[in-house]
Write a structure and sequence with these properties.
Elements: H1 5-22, H2 26-42, H3 47-63, H4 67-80, H5 88-107, H6 111-124, H7 129-139, H8 146-155, H9 181-188
Helix pairs in contact: 1-2, 1-3, 2-3, 3-4, 4-5, 5-6, 6-7
């Protein structure tokens, strides 16, 4: 896909958010992701961009300890992604959203709720090792230890925003001063 200036703009703003997230500045990252979502919507970008930015938002909320909010947002996104005849991509996407919901429910202490959601995620996509691990732990009566969960998240590639996935060269800190700024008039009237 050829990326024109408008798509480079929202992608660059999101990349700036990811850099902030890597520094632990998740509230600032959330503001950048919100801005990227608005720019993507204004540019009529493919839904794939919004879904990726949503996962970035969910991760920052989780890092901030906003587990209930992250679970609620993931649940709403999973509900809106429900489709009676999903493509394999749509099914996997919904499974990942349910996994995020389940992880955040577990972190919030709602183990029965987490188990139900994680089971639904695995039913859609058996290739979710973290969801399977959490189901196994909780079935054996083990507590969801935060340190153990964090290690499992790292090991299973749960996080989208990682040093190896962020490209600092694409980051756009201030879109108003970027060379694509005149295109923003098209987006905002």
């Amino acid at each position: 896909m050829k990326l024109d200036g408008v798509h480079r703009l929202h992608m660059g703003v999101a990349e700036a958010g990811k850099l902030l997230a890597l520094k632990g500045r998740h509230r600032d990252a959330l503001a950048k992701y919100r801005e990227a979502l608005q720019l993507a919507h204004g540019a009529r970008a493919p839904q794939l961009f919004a879904r990726h930015y949503l996962h970035c938002v969910l991760e920052s909320l989780e890092h901030l300890g906003e587990y209930a909010q992250a679970a609620e947002l993931a649940a709403a996104a999973a509900d809106s992604a429900a489709n009676p005849q999903p493509t394999p991509f749509q099914q996997r996407d919904r499974a990942h959203l349910l996994e995020r919901q389940g992880v955040n429910l577990a972190r919030a202490g709602d183990v029965p709720g987490a188990r139900a959601v994680l089971a639904a995620a695995v039913a859609l996509d058996a290739g979710l090792p973290l969801a399977r691990a959490l189901l196994e732990w909780t079935a054996r009566g083990l507590a969801v230890n935060p340190a153990r969960l964090a290690e499992a998240q790292r090991r299973h590639g749960y996080w989208v925003v990682r040093p190896d996935t962020v490209d600092a060269a694409r980051a756009i800190e201030n879109p108003a001063t970027h060379r694509f700024a005149p295109m923003m008039e098209t987006l905002h009237g």
